[in-house]
Write a structure and sequence with these properties.
Distance between the termini: 60 Å
Strand content: under 5%
Order of helices and strands: HHHHHHHHHHH
Mean pLDDT: 76
Oligomer: single chain
Length: about 190
């Protein structure tokens, strides 16, 4: 006779119902929809903001809007105010898509911020840290990010996290003594900008 049968009926472990399994399976997918929508609503005041501070100096100038301008963004250090070729390439593409309409720049920033929050949730879940989803929501909606999300020029803050994610994943797959050194170096490299 198995141990399950010897236990009193009130102490038997219950199997999850089909409803509980479905909620657990759909939870992450639902979160992928809900978090960007929450972020979009939270940053609604920024939707119709214009250019602030030095946005007009960073968003692609008319002399750089051609293919030759794209070449200059990458290979002429003095073509832009600061040499951020990936950021200015993103601005170049965005200007091709929606011109000078600041609404779309702001919406792109908001959705990129939501994407970074989703990446945070996935990393924390992969590391089996409890509250990963809650941490992502706090990250996405915390007021400390308002300036960065509403300021078009700060798109660079959201261009770099995917590279940080890749750099944190790589050392995790190593094993042995040498791998611990690689992991430490990876974490130092990843966290050094902060």
């Amino acid at each position: 006779m198995s141990k399950e049968r010897n236990r009193p009926s009130h102490k038997r472990r219950k199997e999850p119902t089909d409803h509980a399994r479905t909620a657990r399976d759909w939870g992450p997918w639902l979160f992928l929809i809900v978090l960007p929508l929450l972020t979009l609503v939270a940053y609604h005041p920024a939707w119709h903001g214009g250019l602030v501070w030095d946005d007009d100096a960073h968003v692609t100038r008319s002399v750089l809007r051609s293919l030759g301008g794209l070449y200059r963004i990458w290979f002429d250090v003095r073509a832009t105010l600061q040499y951020y070729p990936l950021l200015h390439t993103a601005f170049w593409i965005e200007h091709r898509l929606w011109g000078d309409a600041t609404l779309w720049y702001h919406l792109a920033n908001i959705f990129e911020h939501a994407g970074v929050a989703l990446m945070l949730a996935l990393i924390l879940r992969r590391l089996a840290i409890p509250g990963a989803w809650f941490a992502a929501v706090v990250f996405a909606l915390h007021p400390v990010h308002v300036e960065s999300v509403a300021w078009i020029s700060e798109q660079s803050s959201r261009c770099s996290p995917p590279f940080r994610v890749v750099s944190t994943r790589t050392p995790k797959h190593c094993t042995g003594r040498r791998s611990r050194e690689i992991q430490r170096a990876g974490w130092r490299t990843t966290t050094s900008p902060y």
